[in-house]
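testing teh design pipeline on a random one, pls ignore if ur not involved
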């Protein structure tokens, strides 16, 4: 499938994709704040500067885009056909960096949750939020979001 825009426009569009304050992240922040959870944003003192840091619960939350972090089994985790070597290397590097950040946080004694973009979509958000709040309140509970069907 050919691209619908020229190379310069596509490059400009991809460069504009931000890593902070994304729509899924903002949605989660509003919901947690409404439920009286207080957090810090992008705390650079922690490995990987997690999207949300809840010091009271010693928990860090990352909100990952399914495309950029290649959520396994998710229909939104597509791989571009053009420049497949570049994209493969990029996605592999993202996954390796994510694993390093998560391991460093675990080593420092933090609980880590990954909230996937697909889990923030309509129809799944309430369940995701409920599971995340349960994970925060009860240390023995494991948090995991599954790919969208």
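output:
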């Amino acid at each position: 499938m050919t691209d619908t825009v020229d190379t310069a426009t596509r490059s400009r569009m991809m460069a504009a994709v931000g890593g902070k304050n994304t729509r899924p992240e903002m949605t989660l922040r509003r919901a947690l704040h409404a439920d009286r959870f207080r957090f810090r944003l992008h705390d650079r003192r922690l490995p990987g500067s997690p999207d949300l840091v809840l010091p009271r619960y010693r928990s860090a939350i990352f909100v990952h885009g399914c495309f950029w972090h290649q959520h396994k089994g998710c229909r939104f985790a597509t791989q571009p056909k053009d420049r497949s070597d570049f994209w493969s290397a990029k996605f592999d590097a993202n996954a390796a960096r994510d694993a390093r950040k998560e391991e460093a946080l675990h080593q420092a004694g933090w609980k880590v949750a990954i909230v996937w973009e697909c889990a923030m979509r309509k129809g799944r958000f309430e369940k995701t939020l409920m599971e995340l709040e349960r994970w925060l309140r009860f240390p023995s509970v494991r948090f995991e979001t599954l790919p969208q069907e």
